[in-house]
Design brief:
Keywords: ATP-binding, Autocatalytic cleavage, DNA damage, DNA repair, Helicase, Hydrolase, Nucleotide-binding, SOS response
Structural class: alpha/beta
Low-confidence stretches: 77-87, 314-363
InterPro entries: DExx_box_DNA_helicase_dom_sf, LexA-like, LexA/Signal_pep-like_sf, LexA_repressor, P-loop_NTPase, Peptidase_S24_LexA, Peptidase_S24_S26A/B/C, UvrD-like_ATP-bd
Strand content: 25-35%
CATH class of the largest domain: Alpha Beta
Family: Belongs to the peptidase S24 family.
Helix content: 25-40%
Mean pLDDT: 81
Protein name: S24 family peptidase
Shape: globular
Distance between the termini: 30 Å
CATH architecture of the largest domain: 3-Layer(aba) Sandwich
């Protein structure tokens, strides 16, 4: 598969520390992971002890990575350096196998004899704990034997998160779990008796395992993590594919495996669509920063989709469905033949022209610019109509993905006039998402769609969306949304001696002079969202 510009930028990035790469199935995530490992091996394995660990979720995934690595190394000439003969630098392993190997080292070092609990034993021990804890929490609905599977799942999650203090569990955001009414409660409230009871059950459960010389799968990871913390066996670089299914303790384990040299790198590859482990930590509704691993994580996004042959799936698909493009193709001769014959198309328009044409006519990707009126800054971003709660923000040469937990949801209202006053529609038109840090310090706000051209000299055009901070007072020179006897309009407020004027930013319109009794401030404009073509 030929690498595109976005993939090359990620592979060759000199930003070390933590990298997070998000993409969908077929976007070339594994290809990026493999090529990144080769790049790190050739450029950032400076000493004999420097090693790279590539982590897969299971054996079939591991085999796929091995095959991709083998093919890439055979054909790779782009990243060749003086270090390229270090073929044994990359260590490939599944997450379970690498965890278990460190657990065995811990058991050997501490002469710790134990055996892995089986499901039936876990069920019986949990049931025993449930019967004991009931006496202290009489009437608590969650402590019901028919919810035993729910309780086991919750205990597993607490241990997957390595919460050793009740306070940590009480304030934790519990996302990712899906249960029916018969299986258990929809959610456990923070700082509740239910959480307290289950946490105490977990402690009782752990004590019984210890007495019986048993460990569960979570204990194996916890013990492996303890050994990794003090172990001299470290990796200079770690790349984990399908990281969305790694638990919090597994991510902490990988962090401890990294030697943290000045040139070390941990790259987490995340599939935005697939989430097989409900206890996986990197999921919607939770910030990566909650791991407390690295505040300066660099985020990337892979948005193109490739077929099995490595060709972009949408290169010619959009050409088939666009009448404008069919007209262009017809000028090349038989459009049906040309659609399936890229060589003919390239001969007339060039490869770059065709790719740009298909990208620019995508019906699902929308481009915007956000103008921050408070700080005089501008940001470019895109969103996919199929997933409006995720934004791709361009910052310099990099692109950062903002997921739902990093965004602020704003209600959108239509029909505020930026010409003559008209009645503002009180019905919500929809929702729009904006990165929270753009609106830092702004608590209550919404979007108003502009209709008219009276504010064009303030770079507020017809069809723009203005971010309004809801407030009932304004200062001189603020751009305000005001209600005039049931009609709403957007103007610049000018306050003089005994005189209040709503000033347009277009010489075609006259100022509106008003009195205190006539004006009702709805809010002050703090930003503008402009759609780009």
């Amino acid at each position: 598969m030929k690498l595109d510009t976005a993939q090359k930028r990620i592979i060759r990035s000199k930003v070390l520390g933590y990298n997070l790469v998000r993409g969908t199935a077929g976007s070339g995530k594994t290809t990026v992971a493999v090529n990144r490992s080769i790049f790190l091996k050739d450029n950032y394995c400076l000493y004999e002890t420097d090693k790279i660990l590539m982590v897969a979720q299971n054996d079939s995934h591991l085999q796929q990575i091995k095959e991709t690595l083998h093919k890439t190394e055979e054909s790779q000439t782009e990243f060749i350096t003086l270090f390229s003969n270090q073929v044994d630098k990359v260590h490939l392993e599944t997450i379970d196998n690498i965890v278990y190997s460190y657990f065995l080292e811990h058991r050997r070092k501490n002469k710790y004899n134990c055996k892995l609990i089986i499901k039936e034993e876990q069920y019986e021990i949990t049931k025993q704990c449930l019967n004991e804890i009931k006496n202290s929490y009489k009437g608590l609905k969650v402590l019901n034997e028919r919810y035993i599977e729910f309780i086991i799942d919750e205990i597993n999650w607490i241990k997957d998160c390595n919460y050793i203090k009740l306070e940590e569990y009480q304030k934790a955001d519990r996302v990712g779990r899906k249960v029916t009414k018969e299986q258990g409660p929809k959610r456990l409230l923070k700082n509740s008796k239910a959480r307290e009871a289950i946490f105490n059950m977990m402690q009782l459960y752990n004590n019984l395992l210890k007495e019986k010389n048993l460990v569960d799968q979570r204990d194996i990871t916890l013990l492996a993590t303890k050994y990794a913390e003090d172990s001299k066996k470290k990796y200079s670089h770690i790349i984990a594919d399908d990281s969305q299914d790694l638990t919090k303790i597994q991510l902490e384990f990988l962090d401890l495996l990294c030697s943290k040299k000045a040139y070390s790198n941990i790259m987490l590859i995340v599939n935005r669509e697939k989430h097989l482990n409900q206890n996986g930590w990197i999921t919607k509704g939770r910030k990566f920063a909650s791991l407390n691993l690295d505040e300066n994580i660099k985020k990337y996004s892979l948005n193109k989709k490739y077929g099995p042959s490595g060709q972009l799936e949408n290169d010619f698909k959009s050409i088939e469905t666009s009448q404008e493009q069919l007209d262009i193709l017809n000028s090349c001769g038989d459009s049906k033949n040309n659609i399936n014959n890229p060589a003919k198309l390239n001969e007339k328009y060039g490869e770059k022209g065709i790719i740009e044409m298909s990208n620019n006519t995508s019906p699902f990707i929308e481009k915007f610019q956000y103008c921050d009126l408070r700080h005089s800054r501008k940001y470019s971003f895109t969103r996919d109509l199929n997933n409006i709660s995720e934004l791709l923000v361009k910052s310099g040469d990099s692109e950062d993905v903002y997921s739902i937990e990093e965004l602020k949801q704003l209600a959108v209202y239509s029909d505020i006039a930026a010409g003559e006053p008209i009645l503002m529609n009180s019905d919500i038109e929809g929702d729009f998402y904006i990165p929270q840090h753009w609106l830092k310090g702004v608590k209550d706000c919404f979007l108003l769609k502009v209709k008219g051209d009276s504010m064009i000299e303030a770079d507020i055009d017809d069809g723009d969306y203005v971010v309004i901070r809801k407030q009932y007072a304004a200062q001189n020179n603020d751009i305000v949304a005001v209600d005039l006897d049931g009609n709403a309009t957007l103007k610049r407020l000018q306050i003089g001696k005994g005189r209040i004027v709503l000033m347009p930013e277009n010489e075609k319109y006259y100022p509106i002079e008003i009195t205190d009794n006539e004006i009702n401030v709805i809010g002050v404009a703090v930003g503008v969202v402009k759609q780009k073509i």
